[in-house]
């Protein structure tokens, strides 16, 4: 399979030919080549990944077609979005679910994450995409309890419309694409995300967005180029607790798509990605200040999540309504009844040495201690 063949299939399936600008092409070519030459996909991998890439191309064609027929979509404002960042497994998903209880805030819903077209405002009656939105799984384990297909989804599929997304790093061993992704500028991907957010908001009440994925931590300058008034909420946890858990999740997903799971590659990849992410955040905040950032410690979140959200909203200058507070309390209670068991894997399985991990994150840990304890 080649990128040209996927594009031809998408145009034939959708009946459109305009993909917009060429910003997506390099990532698509690298991704397709990496899956073909490096990932050792099994039959399931072949059957799942290439059709998914084709559907993504089809959605990009449709986004461009909606803009062609309705250029007024570009007039929709996207003001002061709140980006959730930080290491994975730091409570960021739980925070996202709590913020989703605020009816005055907008997020990417599960059913529109992979299929943002047609714009929700144009659908009459129940949206058929809702029926097809399956509960999000990572390997054999669920995320924290969610709100079904209407619950919040990460930005990875939306960034994938420009084929610059970390989503596929969890699908197989694709080091060429991973190396490129860590070294490239994602401004075009975030500008395309802004384009899609306008499409999703068009014809609907315009609410402030909460956009979440830990990967955002790698690309703050790219985010600010596309969203100059963006603000960030950053969740924090001991990196040694994080890396083993996220490596387990990658192993679970890999096992669906390849019969050759390289656990040491998974450990090395995650150590590299997340240490790089924290180095970049520390560097950015040292150079530009902390004013755009609000910090939440994992332990504080576990102890009193509603208090943490109230403090966040005070920082944002927004109220917490009684209904919002009640929704958060109800969701949190349910989540505590359905928590995943703690990781029991051996770090050596992933080639991880706890003693070697700590020095890689020492600078970040020192800064995080100051960030979460500073006066808010």
What is the compact description of this entry?
The chain is of the alpha/beta class.
Features:
376 residues; alpha/beta; Rossmann fold; 4-stranded parallel β-sheet; two-stranded antiparallel ribbon; 16 helices; 6 strands; globular
Q: What is the domain tally? A: 1
Looking at the overall shape, the CATH architecture is 3-Layer(aba) Sandwich
Number of helices: 16
Question: For the CA atoms, what is the radius of gyration?
Answer: 20 Å
Largest sheet: 4 strands, parallel
Order of helices and strands: HHHEHHHEEHHHEHEHHEHHHH
Could you say what the CATH topology is called? Rossmann fold
Secondary structure tally: strands: 6
Biggest sheet strand order reads 4-1-5-6
Instruction: Specify the CATH homologous superfamily.
Output: P-loop containing nucleotide triphosphate hydrolases
Instruction: Estimate percent helicity.
Output: 40-55%
Could you tell me how far the N terminus lies from the C terminus, measured between alpha carbons in angstroms? 52 Å
CATH class: Alpha Beta
Class of secondary structure makeup: alpha/beta
Q: Give the rounded overall mean pLDDT.
A: 93
Shape summary: globular
Low-confidence spans: pLDDT under 50, at least 5 residues? Answer: 135-143
Structure description:
- With 376 residues, the chain is of the alpha/beta class.
- The protein has a single domain (77-373), classed as Rossmann fold.
- The protein is built from 16 helices and 6 strands.
- The strands form 2 sheets. Strands 4-1-5-6 form a 4-stranded parallel beta sheet, with helices on both faces. Strands 2-3 form a two-stranded antiparallel ribbon.
- Helix 1 packs across helix 3, helix 9 (187-201) packs across helix 10 (220-226) and helix 11 packs across helix 12.
- The longest helix is centred in the N-terminal third of the chain and has 27 residues, at 43-69.
- The protein is globular.
């Amino acid at each position: 399979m080649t990128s040209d063949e996927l594009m031809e299939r998408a145009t034939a399936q959708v009946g459109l030919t305009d993909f917009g600008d060429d910003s997506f092409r390099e990532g698509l070519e690298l991704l397709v080549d990496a899956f073909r030459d490096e990932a050792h996909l099994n039959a399931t991998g072949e059957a799942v990944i290439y059709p998914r890439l084709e559907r993504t191309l089809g959605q990009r064609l449709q986004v461009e077609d909606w803009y062609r027929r309705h250029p007024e979509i570009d007039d929709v404002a996207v003001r002061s979005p709140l980006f959730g960042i930080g290491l994975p497994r730091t409570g960021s998903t739980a925070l996202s679910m709590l913020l989703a209880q605020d009816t005055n805030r907008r997020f990417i819903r599960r059913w529109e994450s992979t299929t943002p077209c047609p714009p929700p405002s144009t659908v009459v009656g129940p949206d058929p995409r809702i029926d097809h939105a399956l509960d999000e799984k990572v390997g054999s384990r669920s995320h924290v309890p969610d709100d079904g297909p209407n619950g919040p989804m990460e930005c990875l599929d939306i960034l994938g419309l420009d084929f610059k997304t970390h989503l596929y790093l969890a699908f197989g061993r694709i080091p060429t694409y991973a190396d490129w992704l860590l070294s490239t500028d994602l401004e075009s991907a975030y500008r395309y995300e802004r384009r899609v957010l306008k499409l999703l908001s068009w014809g609907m009440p315009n609410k402030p967005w909460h956009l979440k994925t830990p990967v955002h931590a790698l690309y703050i300058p790219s985010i600010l180029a596309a969203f100059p008034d963006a603000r960030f909420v950053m969740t924090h946890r001991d990196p040694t607790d994080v890396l083993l858990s996220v490596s387990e999740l990658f192993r679970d997903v890999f096992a669906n798509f390849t019969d050759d799971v390289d656990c040491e590659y998974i450990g090395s990849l995650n150590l590299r990605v997340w240490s790089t992410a924290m180095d970049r955040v520390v560097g950015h905040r040292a150079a530009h200040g902390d004013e755009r950032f609000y910090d939440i410690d994992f332990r504080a979140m576990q102890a009193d999540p509603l208090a943490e959200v109230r403090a966040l909203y005070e920082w944002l200058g927004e109220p917490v309504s009684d209904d919002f507070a009640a929704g958060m309390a109800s969701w949190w209670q349910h989540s505590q009844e359905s928590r995943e068991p703690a990781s029991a894997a051996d770090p050596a399985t992933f080639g991880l040495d706890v003693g070697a991990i700590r020095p890689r994150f020492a600078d970040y840990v020192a800064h995080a201690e100051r960030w979460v304890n500073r006066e808010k």
